[in-house]
Amino acid sequence: MQAKTTRKGSTPIKVYCLPDERAAVQANADAAGLSLSTYLLRVGMGYEIQGILDHGRVHDLAKVNGDLGRLGGLLKLWLTNDARVADFTPATIRALLGKIEATQDELRRVMTEVVQG
After folding, report:
1. Are residues 66 and 106 in the same domain?
2. How many CB atoms lie within 10 A of CB 64?
3. N or C: which terminus of the chain has fewer CB atoms within 10 Å of its end residue's CB?
């Protein structure tokens, strides 16, 4: 059986750079979710690097989506004349609709931040 050739046993490529250049390349690797070595290899091989999503911002989107679901549920109860929301006035419903619109605006804002970085 032949031994499998691995990169670990190969000769490394050295790149001399200034500390700020290294920091910038490291930041790009981090943004792509890759190690510095993997990032440099992929860039050097001509592969397109795709960044990873900011998981914190995705969590924010999930929370905003949950808020929209709860607000929509309240509106649905009111529209079906459910006894639990019998005391809702038209002003309350208008406020609820305003809250839904504000939440949608927040959702759009966070989505824009995630997409644009």
Report:
1. yes
2. 19
3. N
Q: What is the pLDDT of residue 58?
A: 76
Cβ–Cβ < 8 Å for 52, 31:
yes
pLDDT in tens, 68-86: 888 888 888 888 887 887 7
Same domain, 81 and 28: no
pTM for the whole thing?
Answer: 0.45
Same domain, 101 and 66: yes
Token output for 59: 């969590």
Half-sphere exposure of 85 (CA within 13 A, CB side): 17
Q: How many domains does the chain have?
A: 2
Long-range Cβ contact pairs of 105-112 (< 8 A, separation 24 or more): 106/64, 107/61, 107/64, 107/65, 107/68, 110/57, 110/60, 110/61, 110/64, 111/61
Domain interval for residue 31: 12-44
